Amino acid sequence: MEVFLGPDGDPRCGWAGGAPEFLGYHDTEWGFPVDDDRRLFEKVSLEAFQSGLSWRTILAKRENFRRAFAGFDFHAVAEFDEADVQRLLGDAGIVRHRGKIEAVINNAGRAVELAAAEGSLAAYLWRYEAPAGEVATPLTASTSPTSVALAKDLKKRGWRFVGPTTAFAFMQAMGLVNDHAVECRVRSDVAEARRRFTPPARR
Asked: In angstroms, what CA-CA distances link 170 with 6, 69, 93, 143, 196?
């Protein structure tokens, strides 16, 4: 993986230098383990919206998405109806794509079901923590065996817009895999955070 030197002279993952707003996200969020259900649902949802677009577009609109989708409280989003769909289609602050909007509302309902069955959304998702050493598959650089398994199970449970690539991007961001470049300054910080973190599935 390419690296770039940040303003402090330390190496980061190459993509962190792609836009000014990427550096803070890379250094403080990407890869650090998350067990908060709202944040997990938010990231699944934003990854669905990113499909076919750039992460820069989605990151720039993240606060707008939060306002539009009730802070990604999936219990609240699961109650959205056609009037909410029309409201969201008219919201210039987000990505106005009916299929993706309806997918997030559908997925909120599926998240409610999962949380009820597993105790929390986090408890379910952290069962898919990648084994030590697993990274993106060489042929695609965007999926892994674990992301394929997660996407398959979510699809079976009725989730939409969560394929293996989306699942792997979610896993990278939420700490289920440490995919920082070996040379990246943040990789060791993430490794330590993951070492101290006890996944809900094992509590």
From this structure: 24, 19, 22, 11, 20
CATH number of the domain at 3-202, please?
Answer: 1.10.340.30
Low-confidence ranges of the chain (pLDDT < 70): 1, 132-141, 201-203
In angstroms, rounded to a whole number, what is the distance separating the alpha carbons of residues 136 and 169? 10
Whether 55 is a known active-site residue: answer yes
What's the pLDDT at 139? 42
> Where are the chain's structural domains?
3-202
Note if 47 is an active site residue.
Answer: yes
Residue-wise pLDDT for 63-79, tens only, equals 999 999 999 999 999 99
Catalytic pick among 30, 55, 126, 128: 55
Catalytic residue, candidates 42, 47, 124, 128? 47
